[in-house]
Design a protein that fits this description.
Blueprint: H1 14-29, H2 32-39, H3 43-57, E1 62-63, E2 70-71, H4 73-97, E3 105-111, H5 123-133, E4 137-143, H6 146-154, E5 160-164, E6 172-187, H7 202-207, E7 209-212, H8 219-226, E8 229-233, H9 237-245, E9 251-254, H10 255-263, E10 267-269, E11 276-286, H11 293-304
Parallel strand pairs: 3-4, 3-5, 7-8
Antiparallel strand pairs: 1-2, 5-11, 6-9, 6-10, 6-11
Helix pairs in contact: 1-2, 1-3, 5-11
C-alpha cells in the first residue's frame, strides 16, 4: 500500500547513498545471505541497514522470511529510481573527470561471444596499453548477447560494445575493427568427417542437421543457412562448439576460434569453397553521449592496434 503522499524524503546525502548501495547489493545478489560476501558484512548488519533505509524512506522495500526474499511493489520502484540516481551520479563524475588531464572513473566494455579472446581483436594488447596510459580508470569487462549489447550502449549502461557488424541502428556509431572468416565444420564423431572431399556431396551436407545462432546477423549468413537443415539453436560459440563436437550437428564457426581443434584433427571444414562467409566486427558507441575521454582513448588504441600483427 502506498504511504501518505504528504511524507517528504528531504535531502539525500552520503548516509542515504550508503544505505541504497546495501539495498542494491541485496537485490542483485538475491537476498541478505547472498549479499554478505559482496558487502563483507554480516546478515544482521545488512538487515539493520535495510530497516534503516525503509524507515528513512517510510516504505517497505522487501519481504524476508520463510518464504524467501522478494521485493515489494514499492521496493521494485525504489530499485529502478535508485539505478537512475546512480547513473546520474556516474554521469556527473565522468563529466567532471573529463575536465582533468588525469583520467579516472570507469570504462565499461561489453563484448559479444568470443571477441575478447579472438587473436584478431588484439584486446589484451589494447587493454595493456590503456592501463598504462590511464592507470586510474577502472575497466569493467563483460560478455552479453548481441541485442543486449546494443541496448546497453544505447541506454548508457556500457561505454563501448564489441559486436559482429550486422546492421546500423540510429543512435549508434560504428568503428570497423576487423573481419572474422567462417566455414562449416563437423567433428570427428560426425558421419561426414571421414568422407573424402571428392566424394562429399553438397546434398549430404545440406541434409545434415545444423546448429546455428538463432538470430539474423547478416544477409550473407542468412543466405548460407537458407537451404540447410536448421535443427538446433545455440547462440554462444562455446555452446555451439560443444554441439558440433558431439557429432550430432554441423555448424558455422569462426576459423580463428576453432583453429586448435582443426589442428588436432577434431574438426574439419565441409565444402569450404561453397559454405563460407565473412562477418565484420565493430566497436559501437552512442552517437550523442557525454564527453568520455577514457572511451575515446580506448577506441583510438583499438584503431591503432593492427589485427594482422602477431604477438
Amino acid at each position: 500500500m502506498k504511504k501518505d503522499l504528504k511524507v517528504s524524503l528531504g535531502q539525500v546525502g552520503d548516509y542515504e547513498i550508503r544505505l541504497l548501495k546495501v539495498f542494491e547489493a541485496v537485490v542483485e545478489s538475491g537476498g541478505f545471505s547472498a549479499a554478505e560476501s559482496e558487502l563483507s558484512i554480516g546478515r544482521s548488519t545488512i538487515s539493520t541497514h535495510i530497516a534503516k533505509l525503509e524507515d528513512r524512506l517510510n516504505l517497505r522495500l522487501c519481504r524476508r522470511g520463510r518464504g524467501g526474499f522478494s521485493l515489494t511493489e514499492e521496493g521494485i520502484e525504489v530499485y529502478e529510481l535508485m539505478k537512475g540516481l546512480f547513473s546520474a551520479m556516474e554521469s556527473f563524475r565522468s563529466g567532471v573527470n573529463a575536465l582533468h588531464v588525469r583520467l579516472t572513473g570507469e570504462l565499461r566494455i561489453i563484448a559479444s561471444d568470443a571477441i575478447y579472446m579472438d587473436p584478431q581483436s588484439k584486446l589484451p594488447e589494447a587493454i595493456a596499453r590503456f592501463s598504462e596510459a590511464a592507470p586510474d580508470v577502472n575497466v569493467l569487462l563483460d560478455v552479453k548477447a548481441l541485442s543486449d549489447i546494443e541496448r546497453m550502449v544505447l541506454n548508457d549502461e556500457a561505454d563501448i560494445g564489441l559486436i559482429p557488424f550486422h546492421r546500423e541502428l540510429t543512435g549508434l556509431e560504428y568503428t570497423q575493427l576487423y573481419a572474422d572468416h567462417f566455414h562449416l565444420y563437423c567433428s570427428r564423431a560426425h558421419p561426414l568427417y571421414d568422407t573424402l572431399p571428392e566424394e562429399l556431396s553438397l546434398e549430404a551436407v545440406l541434409a545434415s542437421k545444423v546448429v546455428h545462432a538463432g538470430i539474423h546477423t547478416s544477409p550473407e549468413v542468412g543466405a548460407q543457412l537458407a537451404d540447410m537443415n536448421k535443427a538446433a539453436i545455440s547462440y554462444f560459440y562455446e555452446a555451439r562448439l560443444a554441439m558440433i563436437l558431439s557429432g550430432a550437428y554441423i555448424g558455422f564457426m569462426p576459423d580463428t576460434y576453432v583453429e586448435p581443434y582443426v589442428a588436432a584433427g577434431e574438426l574439419r571444414a565441409l565444402v569450404p569453397e561453397i559454405k563460407q562467409y565473412s562477418l565484420g566486427v565493430a566497436a559501437i558507441t552512442r552517437t550523442h553521449g557525454r564527453t568520455n575521454r577514457a572511451r575515446e582513448l580506448f577506441l583510438s588504441i583499438l584503431n591503432e592496434t593492427d589485427p594482422n600483427t602477431s604477438t
